[in-house]
Amino acid sequence: MIDQIVEYFSFPFVRNALVAGVLISLSAALLGVPLVLKRLSFIGDGLSHVAFGAMAVAGVLNFADSMALSLPVTIACALVLLKSSRGAKNAGDATLAMLSVGAMATGYLLMNLKPSSSNVSGDVCTTLFGSVSILTLTATDLWLSAGLSLGVVVCWILSYHRLFDVTFDEDHARACGTNTALFNAVWAVVVAVVIVVSMRLVGTLLVTAILVFPAVSAMRVAKSFRSVTIVAAVFSVVCSTIGILVAVIAGTPVGSTIVGVDIIGFLAMSTIGRFLR
Amino acid sequence: MTNLVECRDLRLGYGSTAITPCPDFTVGAGDCVSIVGPNGAGKTTLLKCIAGLLKPVGGTLALAPGLGDGGIGYLPQQGPFQRDFPASVREVVQSGCQALRGLRPFYSRAERRRAAEAMERLGVDMLAQKCYRELSGGQRQRVLLARAICGECRLLLLDEPTTGLDPEATSHFYRMLHGINSGGIAVVMVSHDLDGALDIATHVLTLGANASFGRRARK
Amino acid sequence: MNAKTITTAALVVAALAAAALLCVDSTTREVDPPTPHAADAGDSAEVDIDFTRMNATMQATYTYRLAANPAEFAGKSMRVSGKFLTGVDEEDGERHYGCLVGNSAGCACCAASLVLEFVPKDSYAWPTNYPPEESQITISGTLEMFEVGDNMLRQPITRVPKLANADIAF
C-alpha cells in the first residue's frame, strides 16, 4: 500500500491535486463554519448551481477559462442573497430554488445545444461530481485555485474576531460600530470565491459537502469557536487528502470519495462527541 | 451636555409599523430607566434608536459626546441560533471589546484583562472555558451582561433581559444589574417583568396609550 | 489569539505556499509518468502510457487530458483499448481508423470518452488483417500530431493527434 502511494506521488498531476485539494478544503472548512452557524448552508448549494450555469455559458461563448465568467456571476448572486443574515432568510427560499435549478437546467441545455468539446457528457459528469476534475488541473488552474484559496485563508485569519462578532450577534456588533453591511458584503464575495474554486475539487453538486461536513463534525466535539474552526480545518484537510489518495489508488471518482470519507469522519466525530459528554 | 441621552419630540417608526410618539426624557449618569408599555408600543425600537441601529423618524435624540464610540453596552434579545452557538464564555465576553479592538486583527492584553475583570464582576469567571450552549438561561444572561460592560461602558441598554428565566435567576440578575448601576453605569431597559424591573428603576418611561416619563421613588 | 497562535498560523500558511510553489514548478516540464504497475513479462511491450493497466480514475484522468491537450502527449508511446471504428472520409476519399477510448469513471451515464485516430503500420491492409467493425481492440503506437484539413468528426482542426505506427491486437 505504501509503495503504491509513493508510486502515485511520482505523477505531477497527483501532487498538484493534493496541493490544490488541501488548500481548497482548508478554505472551504473555514468559511463553512460561519455559514452553518448562520443556517445558510442551502445558499452554498444554490450558489454552486448558479456557478455551473455560468460555466456552461462561458463554454458556449468559448471562454479560455470559465472562471472569468463564473466568478463574477456567482459573486453577484452571493451579494444579492447574503446582504444581511436576515435578508437571506427573507429572500424567500423559493427564489433561491428557482435561481439554482434554472441555472443548472439552462447550463446543461446550453452545453448540449452547442458543445464546446466532442464529449459533452464526460465534461458534465466531472463538472457536476468532480470525478476527475482535480486531477486534470492545468498550470493556470492550479495557480488560480491555490492562490485564491490561500488568499481566503489569509483574509480569514485577519478577520477572525470580526467574523465571530458578526456571526454570534450581528445586532450587538452593529451597536459596537462595526459596519456589518460592508462586512457581510465582503464575506459574501469570499463565500462565492470559495464555492467556485471548490467546484474543481468535488464538483458542483457536492460543494455543500466540504462546506458543511467539517463544520458540523467539529461542532460535535469542540466547545469554543476557536477549537471548532481548528478541528473543522484539520478534519477537512485530512478527509480530502485521504479521499484523493483512495480515489487515485482504488479508481473511484474523486468527488464522491472525498464526501464518503467526510461521512465516515462525521460518524466518527459524532461517536467521540457522545463519549465526551 | 451633562445628561447621557436627551430625547425631544421623538417619533419612532420601523418599516411598516405606525409612527409612535415618545414623551421627552433624559437619562443622566447613574440613572436606571425602565421602559414599559404594551406590545407594539415601540419599546425595542426606542432602544435600537439609542443604540444607533435605527434612526428616529422625527424629533431629536442626542447622545453625550463620545458616548456612541463604544460607550454604550448593548444586550439585544437573543435568537435561537445564539443559544446553540459553540463559543466559550471567554470568547463571548471578549467580543464586548470589539469597539476598542477596531481594525486590529487581534485583541491586546489590556482588552483581554478587561474581559477577565468583567467576568469576575458578574461571577462567571469560573465558567470561562465552558461552552455557551451548555449554560443555563440565567448564566447566559450574566455572560451577556459581562460582554455588555466589557468596553468603556457608561450606558447599558437591555432588551428584555429576563425573558425565559425562572424567578430565582431573574431576581439574581436584577441584583447584579443593580450592583452595576450603583457603580455609576446608567441603565435603560425594556422589561415585561414589572416587579423586578421597577424594584431597581429610578425612572419609568411608559410608551403607548398613557405615555409618560417620570421619577420613581425608590424603596 | 496570542503571538504563538499567530506564528503557528503564519508557519502553516507559509508551508502550504512553499509546497504549492514546489509542485507547480513541475507542471511545466512534465516528466514521463511511469506506468502504474510494471508490465509483466510476455508479449506486451513496455509503453510510456498504458491505458489498459490503469484503474478507472486514472483512465478517466488521462482520457480527459488527452482530449483537452493532446500536444502534451506528443512523442509518447501509448496503449489504449476500445471499440474499433472505421470509415471513409468523403472529402479526401481515404479510410480513417479510430478507437473509441472510454470508461465510466463511476457514473454509467457520463463516460469520459474520446475517439482516438490511429495510423496503422504499413503491414496492415484493409480489410484483410483488420478486426470487425465495432469490436473491442487494443492498439499501441506513438502519439503524433498530424496536420490535416479536418478529422473524421468534421471538426475544423489543423493538428490532429493520431497514434502512429500502430499495432492492432484483437
Task: Give the topology.
The complex is a heterotrimer of chains A (277), B (219) and C (170).
Chain A: H1 2-9, H2 12-37, H3 41-60, H4 67-81, H5 85-90, H6 93-113, H7 120-129, H8 139-158, H9 160-168, H10 170-175, H11 180-202, H12 207-221, H13 225-250, H14 254-276
Chain B: E1 5-12, E2 20-21, E3 25-27, E4 32-36, H1 43-51, E5 58-63, E6 72-75, H2 80-83, H3 89-94, H4 98-101, H5 109-121, H6 137-148, E7 155-159, H7 167-182, E8 186-190, H8 194-200, E9 203-206, E10 212-215
Parallel strand pairs in B: 4-8, 4-9, 6-7, 7-8
Antiparallel strand pairs in B: 1-2, 1-3, 1-5, 9-10
Chain C: H1 3-28, E1 49-50, H2 56-68, E2 77-88, E3 95-103, E4 112-120, E5 136-147, E6 159-169
Parallel strand pairs in C: 1-2, 4-6
Antiparallel strand pairs in C: 2-3, 2-5, 3-4, 5-6
What does this protein structure show overall?
The complex is a heterotrimer of chains A (277), B (219) and C (170). Helix content of chain A is 82%, strand content 0%. With 277 residues, chain A is mainly alpha-helical. Chain A has a single domain (2-276), classed as ABC transporter involved in vitamin B12 uptake, BtuC. In chain A, helix 3 (41-60) packs antiparallel against helix 4 and helix 3 (41-60) packs across helix 11 (180-202). The mean pLDDT of chain A is 86. Chain B has two domains: 1-67 and 154-219, 3-Layer(aba) Sandwich (Rossmann fold); 87-152, no CATH class. The longest helix of chain B has 16 residues, at 167-182. Helix content of chain C is 23%, strand content 32%. Chain C contains two helices and six strands; from the N terminus they run H-E-H-E-E-E-E-E. Chain C is elongated. Chains in contact: A-B, A-C, B-C.
Distinctive features:
heterotrimer; A: about 280 residues; mainly alpha; ABC transporter involved in vitamin B12 uptake, BtuC; C: about 170 residues; alpha/beta; 2 domains; 6 strands
